[in-house]
Amino acid sequence: MLVKYINENSVRLYNGVVEIDSVMYANDYEKAQEAGFMPLVSTPKPEDTDDVIYVRTFESVDNKVMERWKAIRISEEVS
């Protein structure tokens, strides 16, 4: 799967069409890469627990986008 890295919280999926210098290219892997799309390397999501949830993050590394999981500790709010 090809994606374009936007920021640590967002990527854009390659939908098969890219525009380069006002020319549209369809289903052209090389042109997609030229336009900034890179392979997505996914990792399995860890299981959430009662006090930890995992949020997906992205990082651009060595011409690929790494999907990672950030642990967020949640606390019980007393009202």
Short description:
The chain has 1 helix and 7 strands, in the order E-E-E-E-H-E-E-E. With 79 residues, it is mostly beta strands. It is elongated and about 55 Å long.
Structure description:
This protein is mainly beta and 79 residues long. The protein is 8% helix and 53% strand. A five-stranded mixed β-sheet has the order 2-1-5-7-6, with no helix packed on it. The chain has a two-stranded antiparallel ribbon with strand order 3-4. A hairpin with a 2-residue loop joins β1 and β2. The longest helix has 6 residues, at 29-34. The N and C termini lie far apart (45 Å).
Strand order of the largest sheet: 2-1-5-7-6
Give the ordered list of helices and strands.
Answer: EEEEHEEE
The global form is: elongated
Low-confidence stretches: none
Blueprint of the fold:
Elements: E1 2-7, E2 10-13, E3 17-20, E4 23-26, H1 29-34, E5 38-41, E6 52-61, E7 64-73
Parallel strand pairs: 5-7
Antiparallel strand pairs: 1-2, 1-5, 3-4, 6-7
